[in-house]
Design brief:
Strands 1, 4, 5, 8, 9 and 10 form a 6-stranded mixed beta sheet that branches. Mean pLDDT is about 90; it is low at about 1-15. This protein has a single domain, classed as Sulfite Oxidase, Chain A, domain 2. The protein is mainly beta and about 200 residues long. The radius of gyration is 18 Å and the shape is globular. It has helices spanning about 60-65, 95, 180; strands at about 25, 45-50, 55-60, 75, 80-95, 105-110, 115-120, 130-135, 140, 150, 165-170. Pfam families: Oxidored_molyb. This is Sulfite oxidase-like oxidoreductase. It comes from Streptomyces sp. 900116325.
Length: about 200
Protein backbone atom coordinates (compact mmCIF):
# COMPACT_ATOMS: atom_id res chain seq x y z
CA UNK A 1 0.00 0.00 0.00
CA UNK A 2 1.34 3.43 -0.98
CA UNK A 3 0.74 6.44 1.22
CA UNK A 4 1.05 9.87 -0.37
CA UNK A 5 1.01 12.98 1.74
CA UNK A 6 -0.85 15.91 0.18
CA UNK A 7 1.96 18.24 1.17
CA UNK A 8 4.73 16.11 -0.32
CA UNK A 9 4.54 17.58 -3.84
CA UNK A 10 3.85 21.12 -2.70
CA UNK A 11 0.68 23.09 -3.22
CA UNK A 12 -0.23 25.42 -6.02
CA UNK A 13 0.07 29.08 -4.99
CA UNK A 14 -3.21 30.82 -4.16
CA UNK A 15 -4.97 32.61 -7.02
CA UNK A 16 -3.36 35.99 -7.65
CA UNK A 17 -0.04 35.10 -6.02
CA UNK A 18 2.78 37.17 -7.51
CA UNK A 19 5.67 35.45 -5.77
CA UNK A 20 6.97 32.26 -7.42
CA UNK A 21 7.93 29.38 -5.12
CA UNK A 22 11.22 29.81 -3.27
CA UNK A 23 11.36 33.58 -3.91
CA UNK A 24 11.25 36.59 -1.56
CA UNK A 25 10.30 40.17 -2.36
CA UNK A 26 13.20 42.59 -2.76
CA UNK A 27 12.68 46.28 -2.08
CA UNK A 28 15.85 47.41 -3.87
CA UNK A 29 17.22 46.36 -7.25
CA UNK A 30 20.18 44.03 -6.58
CA UNK A 31 23.05 44.16 -9.07
CA UNK A 32 24.44 40.77 -10.11
CA UNK A 33 26.67 40.14 -13.12
CA UNK A 34 28.87 37.34 -14.44
CA UNK A 35 31.79 39.73 -14.99
CA UNK A 36 32.80 43.40 -14.99
CA UNK A 37 30.35 46.03 -16.20
CA UNK A 38 31.11 47.05 -19.80
CA UNK A 39 30.64 50.76 -20.53
CA UNK A 40 29.22 51.10 -24.03
CA UNK A 41 28.66 54.53 -25.56
CA UNK A 42 25.38 55.03 -27.41
CA UNK A 43 27.38 56.40 -30.35
CA UNK A 44 29.11 53.03 -30.82
CA UNK A 45 26.25 50.74 -29.73
CA UNK A 46 24.79 48.38 -32.29
CA UNK A 47 22.30 45.52 -32.19
CA UNK A 48 22.42 42.78 -34.79
CA UNK A 49 20.05 39.93 -35.58
CA UNK A 50 21.67 37.18 -37.64
CA UNK A 51 19.52 34.50 -39.23
CA UNK A 52 20.41 30.84 -39.59
CA UNK A 53 21.57 31.44 -43.17
CA UNK A 54 23.86 34.32 -42.20
CA UNK A 55 21.68 37.29 -43.15
CA UNK A 56 22.42 40.16 -40.77
CA UNK A 57 20.02 42.92 -39.72
CA UNK A 58 21.45 45.82 -37.69
CA UNK A 59 20.25 48.84 -35.76
CA UNK A 60 22.39 51.64 -34.37
CA UNK A 61 21.14 53.77 -31.46
CA UNK A 62 19.33 56.29 -33.68
CA UNK A 63 17.57 53.48 -35.58
CA UNK A 64 16.48 51.84 -32.31
CA UNK A 65 15.11 55.16 -31.03
CA UNK A 66 13.16 55.64 -34.27
CA UNK A 67 11.19 52.42 -33.74
CA UNK A 68 7.82 52.31 -31.95
CA UNK A 69 8.39 51.81 -28.22
CA UNK A 70 6.37 50.37 -25.37
CA UNK A 71 6.37 50.90 -21.59
CA UNK A 72 5.93 47.50 -19.96
CA UNK A 73 5.45 47.22 -16.19
CA UNK A 74 6.58 43.75 -15.15
CA UNK A 75 7.70 41.65 -12.20
CA UNK A 76 11.28 40.35 -12.17
CA UNK A 77 12.47 37.05 -10.70
CA UNK A 78 16.16 36.30 -10.13
CA UNK A 79 17.51 32.77 -9.78
CA UNK A 80 19.21 33.93 -6.53
CA UNK A 81 15.66 33.99 -5.09
CA UNK A 82 14.71 37.68 -5.07
CA UNK A 83 11.70 39.06 -6.92
CA UNK A 84 10.92 42.71 -7.63
CA UNK A 85 7.36 43.73 -8.42
CA UNK A 86 6.04 46.44 -10.74
CA UNK A 87 9.26 47.45 -12.49
CA UNK A 88 8.76 50.11 -15.17
CA UNK A 89 10.68 49.99 -18.46
CA UNK A 90 10.70 51.55 -21.90
CA UNK A 91 11.90 49.73 -24.97
CA UNK A 92 11.21 48.13 -28.32
CA UNK A 93 9.34 44.86 -28.58
CA UNK A 94 11.17 41.97 -30.24
CA UNK A 95 8.01 41.64 -32.35
CA UNK A 96 8.90 44.99 -33.95
CA UNK A 97 12.58 44.15 -34.41
CA UNK A 98 11.90 40.75 -35.94
CA UNK A 99 8.88 41.75 -38.06
CA UNK A 100 10.87 41.86 -41.32
CA UNK A 101 13.33 39.09 -40.45
CA UNK A 102 12.64 35.91 -42.40
CA UNK A 103 13.63 32.82 -40.47
CA UNK A 104 12.68 29.20 -39.90
CA UNK A 105 14.82 29.07 -36.74
CA UNK A 106 13.33 27.92 -33.46
CA UNK A 107 16.17 28.98 -31.14
CA UNK A 108 18.05 32.16 -30.27
CA UNK A 109 21.46 32.78 -28.73
CA UNK A 110 21.72 36.28 -27.28
CA UNK A 111 25.16 37.88 -27.00
CA UNK A 112 26.29 40.84 -24.92
CA UNK A 113 29.07 43.38 -24.90
CA UNK A 114 31.52 41.76 -22.49
CA UNK A 115 31.02 38.26 -23.91
CA UNK A 116 27.98 37.02 -21.95
CA UNK A 117 25.54 34.71 -23.77
CA UNK A 118 22.19 33.11 -23.02
CA UNK A 119 19.91 30.87 -25.05
CA UNK A 120 16.13 30.95 -25.45
CA UNK A 121 13.47 29.38 -27.63
CA UNK A 122 12.60 31.96 -30.28
CA UNK A 123 8.94 31.75 -29.31
CA UNK A 124 9.85 33.20 -25.89
CA UNK A 125 11.01 36.41 -27.58
CA UNK A 126 7.78 36.93 -29.55
CA UNK A 127 4.09 37.69 -28.96
CA UNK A 128 4.70 40.54 -26.52
CA UNK A 129 6.99 38.54 -24.24
CA UNK A 130 10.32 40.38 -24.71
CA UNK A 131 11.81 43.81 -25.31
CA UNK A 132 15.12 45.56 -25.92
CA UNK A 133 14.87 48.10 -23.11
CA UNK A 134 16.81 51.34 -22.69
CA UNK A 135 14.95 53.07 -19.84
CA UNK A 136 14.13 52.00 -16.29
CA UNK A 137 11.93 53.98 -13.90
CA UNK A 138 11.80 56.90 -16.35
CA UNK A 139 15.59 57.31 -16.57
CA UNK A 140 18.22 56.03 -18.99
CA UNK A 141 19.13 52.46 -18.13
CA UNK A 142 22.21 52.55 -15.88
CA UNK A 143 25.27 50.51 -16.94
CA UNK A 144 25.07 48.26 -13.85
CA UNK A 145 21.55 47.25 -14.90
CA UNK A 146 22.55 46.60 -18.51
CA UNK A 147 22.57 50.06 -20.09
CA UNK A 148 22.55 51.42 -22.60
CA UNK A 149 20.24 48.55 -23.63
CA UNK A 150 19.36 45.11 -22.33
CA UNK A 151 17.05 42.28 -23.23
CA UNK A 152 14.00 41.96 -20.97
CA UNK A 153 12.22 38.57 -20.82
CA UNK A 154 10.29 38.87 -17.54
CA UNK A 155 8.49 35.52 -17.62
CA UNK A 156 11.86 33.71 -17.21
CA UNK A 157 14.54 34.01 -14.53
CA UNK A 158 16.48 37.23 -14.93
CA UNK A 159 19.71 35.65 -16.23
CA UNK A 160 17.80 35.16 -19.51
CA UNK A 161 17.37 38.95 -19.77
CA UNK A 162 20.89 39.59 -21.05
CA UNK A 163 22.44 42.90 -20.01
CA UNK A 164 24.42 45.02 -22.53
CA UNK A 165 22.77 43.22 -25.43
CA UNK A 166 24.55 43.39 -28.77
CA UNK A 167 23.30 40.50 -30.89
CA UNK A 168 20.74 37.77 -31.38
CA UNK A 169 21.67 34.72 -33.44
CA UNK A 170 18.72 32.76 -34.79
CA UNK A 171 19.61 29.07 -34.85
CA UNK A 172 18.10 25.81 -36.05
CA UNK A 173 19.39 23.95 -32.98
CA UNK A 174 19.77 25.01 -29.36
CA UNK A 175 23.17 26.24 -28.16
CA UNK A 176 23.62 26.69 -24.39
CA UNK A 177 24.74 30.09 -23.15
CA UNK A 178 27.14 31.06 -20.34
CA UNK A 179 25.16 29.97 -17.27
CA UNK A 180 23.43 27.11 -19.06
CA UNK A 181 26.85 25.63 -19.91
CA UNK A 182 27.83 25.46 -16.23
CA UNK A 183 24.69 23.83 -14.88
CA UNK A 184 21.87 26.36 -14.85
CA UNK A 185 18.54 25.19 -16.26
CA UNK A 186 18.23 25.46 -20.03
CA UNK A 187 14.82 27.20 -19.84
CA UNK A 188 14.50 28.94 -16.45
CA UNK A 189 10.79 29.18 -15.59
CA UNK A 190 10.52 30.73 -12.09
CA UNK A 191 7.05 29.26 -11.49
CA UNK A 192 8.48 25.76 -11.97
CA UNK A 193 11.68 26.59 -10.01
CA UNK A 194 13.87 25.70 -12.98
CA UNK A 195 17.09 27.00 -11.45
CA UNK A 196 19.53 24.21 -12.29
CA UNK A 197 19.74 21.29 -14.69
CA UNK A 198 17.46 18.55 -13.45
CA UNK A 199 14.97 20.91 -11.76
Amino acid sequence: MTIISRGFHGRRPPEGTKLPPGQYEATGFPVLSAGPTPHVEKSSWELSVTTEDGRRHTWDWAALMALPSESPTVDLHCVTKWSKFGTEWRGVSLDVLLADVETAAEHALVTSYGGYTTNLPLEDLLDGKAWITYSYGGDDLAPEHGGPARLLVPHLYLWKSAKWVRGIELLESDTPGFWESVGYHNYGDPWREQRYQGD
